[in-house]
Amino acid sequence: MELDLLNAIQTIHTPALDTIMCGITRLGNGGVFWLSLGLLLLLKPSKVRAGLILFIAIGLEVLLCNGLLKHLFCRVRPCDVNTAIQLLIARPKDYSFPSGHTAVSFAAVAALYFSGEKLLWKLALIPAVLIAFSRMYLYVHYPTDILGGALLGCLCGYMAYRLAKGLHMEKKQVK
């Protein structure tokens, strides 16, 4: 069923969309887009807390996703099951579940949400969803990899918020 969905997505390919999706997926490579956002937040005094929570969330995501879960599940990628698909990007060398691109993206979104960044988390959700979709479009992740990555990312964002709260990094109360 998951391969059927991925194969259906393959029917919308166009040269222009291929280029766009390859660019979008690169935003998630190594979490660089999200780390850059965190760095920008650290530069603005009123956003330091959000930046720190974002960095903690990304750290947790790397440990749980790439350090633990991918090795625990060892799920083969769809491009290794259906080798007739010609990949538009380099074949990822690690396992498929959960999607690290999706997990880091949703960790950043959740970190922003839980740190109270009302507008910024909504804006960040746009590239996060696009990055997640691009992984299916490019045939390197199953839909459940994306779902698992999104859930893991949200959990990491929440855990980062709770950790920051425990370290007394709460937002100052305005009376």
UniProtKB/TrEMBL annotation:
Chain segments annotated as transmembrane: 24-43, 50-69, 95-114, 146-164
Keywords: Membrane, Transmembrane, Transmembrane helix
Protein name according to UniProt: Phosphatase PAP2 family protein
Originating species: Jutongia huaianensis
InterPro entries: PAP2/HPO, PAP2/HPO_sf
Pfam families the UniProt entry points to: PAP2
SMART domains registered for this protein in UniProt: acidPPc
Keyword Transmembrane helix: yes
Ranges for domain Phosphatidic acid phosphatase type 2/haloperoxidase: 50-161
The keyword tRNA processing belongs to this UniProt entry's keyword annotation: no
